[in-house]
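REVIEWER CHECKLIST
Item 1: Sequence provided? yes
Item 2: Single chain? yes
Item 3: Sequence as submitted:
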Amino acid sequence: MKILVVEDEHKTGDYLRQGLAESGFLTELASNGVDGLHQALTGDFDLLVLDVMLPGLNGWQVLERLRQGGKQMPVLFLTARDQIEDRVKGLELGADDYLVKPFAFSELLARVRTLLRRGKSSIEPTVLRAADLELDLLRRRVTRAGSRIDLTAKEFALLELLLRRQGEVLPRSMIASQVWDMNFDSDTNVIDVAIRRLRAKVDDAFTPRLIRTARGMGYVLEVPGA
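Item 4: Structure as written out by the authors:
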């Protein structure tokens, strides 16, 4: 699942992005309201974590324009504004939750998962499948042929991306951007190593093998003959 964090305080933004990424979420960061609104309107995000006091456009304006633009993704306000009237305003504008800084990351993570569960239940499946491979987005669980497979957060995010784009050849540059939030460096083998480790867990002991190398282009997950 993909989350957009709009936070102008760089230390807090980096902390949120790292924590959410380590919890298995694809995470992007915007540092002002104008960029945040643009990314939210043009991107495919499952959740928006939004500060109120932002340069350019404040959080209230971002949320209002987001709803006017027809985007119904869940929105969690994360802000130092702790007055009751602020919470009421946020919820009346269409926010789904409101968390006051300072906060415990464990509480933020619980609220994020609750909002994602609520938001996805009536929109799209929460389990991604290919043959006998299943990835449960809400329980963060992967099984193949009924056997539980333990993945790291990055492996989970990588497999989620491959399953979401099933049948598509994904270039290394896209995988680097979506899973590692970095520009692709042709001198690094981090993606190839990650694919190799993922294959060892979800493919090597099973039939059919699902993750294929498209030589010179990238990687694709597909069911042979499907």
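Item 5: Key structural point noted by reviewer: The helical segments are 10-22, 33-42, 59-68, 84-93, 105-120, 153-164, 172-179, 190-202.
Item 6: Recommendation: ____
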